[in-house]
Amino acid sequence: MKSLEVRVPHALDRDEVRRRLDAAVSRAREEYAEKVGGIDAAWRGEDKLSIALTVMGMDIDGEIELYEAELVVRVDVPAMAGLFAGRIKDGIQERLGGLLAGQPA
């Protein structure tokens, strides 16, 4: 396994970040249902979202920790997927950065 960490800044309150993350997980479940096995996501307390999914037969586990001004994403990927670590990190940064940009809806 290879561990990746990505930090994504935000300027939103905790409830808005949680709302956006929950909505993103719901969209991902619908959008990627055929490509990805089930996406398991559960809040552990108010500030930690655990996520598990299977992509191309590889199990991926991670967590998103919510802080006042940033999210810290930690993902464990199989060694084979580690070859794409840079692309994975960039994708996480881009997706979450876009998700958290702007003001609350």
Architecture overview:
The chain has a single domain (2-100), classed as Alpha-D-Glucose-1,6-Bisphosphate, Chain A, domain 4, CATH 3.30.530. A hairpin with a 2-residue loop joins β3 and β4 (58-66). With 105 residues, the chain is α+β, with helices and mostly antiparallel strands. The chain has a 5-stranded antiparallel sheet with strand order 1-5-4-3-2, with helices on one face. Helices cover 32% and strands 36% of the residues. It has helices at 14-31, 85-100; strands at residues 2-9, 40-44, 48-55, 58-66, 70-77. It contains 2 helices and 5 strands; from the N terminus they run βαββββα.
- Average pLDDT score: 89
Query: How many beta-strand runs?
Result: 5
In the CATH classification, which architecture applies? 2-Layer Sandwich
Instruction: Give me the Rg, rounded.
Output: 13 Å
Poorly predicted ranges (pLDDT <50, ≥5 residues)? none
Number of domains: 1
Shape: globular
Helical proportion, percent range: 25-40%
In CATH, the topology is named Alpha-D-Glucose-1,6-Bisphosphate, Chain A, domain 4
User: In DSSP terms, counting alpha (H) and pi (I) runs of 4 or more, how many helices?
Assistant: 2
Which sequence of SSEs, written as H and E, runs from N to C? Answer: EHEEEEH
Please give the alpha-carbon distance between the first and last residues: 38 Å
Strand order of the largest sheet: 1-5-4-3-2
Assess the beta-strand content as a share of residues: 35-45%
CATH superfamily: START domain
Alpha-beta content class: alpha+beta
